[in-house]
């Protein structure tokens, strides 16, 4: 069983020393790092390398929860994947350790709160869409290809322009104009 560390700073001017010192004091044998990488970035090579390096029985250790996850959802997903591989997770600042029953309980409570938050957002979004529909508003992007534009494009094509040139003139995509000319309904995108 090895303790494997992960440290990240958002800008290249920031220093990893505080995190690395805390990780080493916790008994970490190897530290993977990301410098100048925002936590919002999906692609973090140091994290990817750490996750690939971990084996069943190992524990991933971070200085603070926000060093690992882009969001609560991402954090929960990452820890669940680790748990599925038999890898523990430990956050030094929040004193969470999923290799202990108490640590798993605390982390699952975080998960439940995260799911509750997602459900509330989904509920509010649905209510907002219903309220907008009741006021006659329709969601989505406005239709770019109106019947007037199709008629104008037909006239331009009849006058000698090709479909591509007519599409540019009426300011729609060539593929949308082709579909409209063939009588195929054009989806909103």
From TrEMBL:
Residues 2-136 form the Resolvase/invertase-type recombinase catalytic domain. Gene3D superfamilies: Homeodomain-like (1.10.10.60), Resolvase, N-terminal catalytic domain (3.40.50.1390). Coiled coil: none annotated. The keyword DNA-binding applies. The active site is at 10 (o-(5'-phospho-dna)-serine intermediate). Keywords: DNA integration, DNA recombination, DNA-binding. InterPro entries: Homeodomain-like_sf, Recombinase_CS, Resolv_N, Resolvase-like_N_sf, SSR_resolvase. Belongs to the site-specific recombinase resolvase family. This is Recombinase family protein.
